[in-house]
């Protein structure tokens, strides 16, 4: 029993340690929706110092500051868009894993859709051309040759 | 088919995109510009490092071009760049420090030991002003023109070469 209890304690301590080492603070939220928004927001922002970690997953002091700020802004009742704008104003578009849709990102967001439409148009054109070709009348040469073949068959 | 030549567009487009992505990917993301470039130095209210009763705000940076250096006693690269900052101050450039995430005691001891090139130091123990500036770690240096607009941003250690090749030309440009 004592062994099991001791083991449980070690597991608990390890959990606490891993939560601490991933820089995750324990936070109180008055409502679960806010908590989910906090999780989503901190997962959607890149740590400006460490190249490929979200701020919810990073030990860097700046990430801790940013998590704290997200928490404060949520507490003040700011919307997700306002919070993202607040962060981008200070740290730049770099922190967004998903670039926002704006004039200079139209190409980025539009290119996949544009290519898909283009492929669709090309396929439709090819199909139409083929269908047209199969229904086309024979050329005079071909018609003459066909007539000759039929005549030979009939005369034999 | 007369339109067969259109097929050549495929490899050309592929090559073009590949070159474009290659060029973009070989850029160091750490070299990106500050989000505050060409914007007003953020509004703030703080005390100075030397005097807890002296209040300062963004008007401190208006009237003449200023180099704003974000530093802390705990930051090793800040010590190494002090000779360069003293050199800049000797050339008649106005420097204002932001004492970032530091204590008064440590900050003042640092200036005693390594010299004080700063006309004033903004005391920022919680890193609030640093956050507004988008600072991700000391040292960082900003060129702020006489209108209080951020014109240049240098991340990290300022070497003597950086002074010659980057900071001095930028100071000349915006003076």
Explained architecture:
- The complex is a heterodimer of chains A (about 160) and B (about 180).
- Chain A has about 160 residues and is mainly alpha-helical.
- Chain A has two domains: about 1-100, Helicase, Ruva Protein, domain 3 (Orthogonal Bundle), CATH 1.10.8.640; about 105-155.
- Chain A is about 65% helix and about 0% strand.
- Chain A contains six helices and no strands.
- Chain A has helices at about 1-20, 30-45, 60-75, 80-90, 105-135, 140-155.
- The longest helix of chain A is centred in the last third of the chain and has 30 residues, at about 105-135.
- Chain A starts with a helix and ends with a helix.
- The mean pLDDT of chain A is about 85.
- Chain B has about 180 residues and is α/β, with parallel strands linked by helices.
- In chain B, about 35% of the residues are buried.
- Chain B has a single domain (about 30-175), classed as Glutaredoxin, CATH 3.40.30.10.
- A seven-stranded mixed beta sheet of chain B has the order 2-1-5-4-3-6-7.
- The model of chain B has no long low-confidence stretch (mean pLDDT about 95).
- Classes of the chains: A mainly alpha (about 160), B alpha/beta (about 180).
- The interface of A and B includes residues 49, 65, 69 and 92 of A.
């Amino acid at each position: 029993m004592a062994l099991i209890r001791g083991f449980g304690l070690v597991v608990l301590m390890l959990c606490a340690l891993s939560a601490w080492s991933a820089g995750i603070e324990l936070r109180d939220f008055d409502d679960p929706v806010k908590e989910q928004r906090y999780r989503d927001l901190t997962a959607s922002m890149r740590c400006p110092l460490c190249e490929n970690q979200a701020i919810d997953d990073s030990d860097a002091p700046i990430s801790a500051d940013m998590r704290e700020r997200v928490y404060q802004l949520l507490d003040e009742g700011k919307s997700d868009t306002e919070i993202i704008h607040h962060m981008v104003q200070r740290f730049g578009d770099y922190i967004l894993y998903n670039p926002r849709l704006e004039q200079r990102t139209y190409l980025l967001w539009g290119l996949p859709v544009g290519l898909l439409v283009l492929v669709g148009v090309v396929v439709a054109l090819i199909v139409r051309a083929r269908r047209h070709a199969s229904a086309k009348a024979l050329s005079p040469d071909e018609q003459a040759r066909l007539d000759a073949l039929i005549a030979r068959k009939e005369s034999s | 088919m007369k339109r067969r030549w259109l097929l050549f567009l495929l490899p050309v487009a592929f090559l073009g995109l590949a070159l474009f992505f290659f060029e973009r990917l070989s850029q160091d993301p750490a070299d990106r510009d500050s989000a505050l470039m060409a914007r007003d130095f953020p509004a703030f209210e703080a005390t100075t490092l030397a005097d807890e009763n002296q209040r300062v705000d963004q008007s401190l940076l208006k009237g003449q071009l200023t180099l704003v250096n974000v530093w802390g006693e705990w930051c090793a690269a800040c010590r190494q760049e002090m000779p360069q900052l003293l050199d800049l101050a000797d050339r008649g450039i106005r420097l204002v420090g932001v004492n970032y995430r530091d204590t008064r005691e440590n900050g003042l001891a640092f200036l005693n030991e390594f010299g004080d090139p700063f006309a004033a130091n903004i005391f920022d123990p919680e890193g609030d002003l640093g956050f507004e500036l988008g600072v991700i770690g000391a040292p960082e240096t900003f060129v702020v023109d006489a209108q209080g607009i951020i014109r240049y941003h240098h991340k990290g250690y300022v070497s003597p070469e950086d002074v010659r090749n980057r900071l001095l030309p930028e100071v000349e440009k915006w003076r």
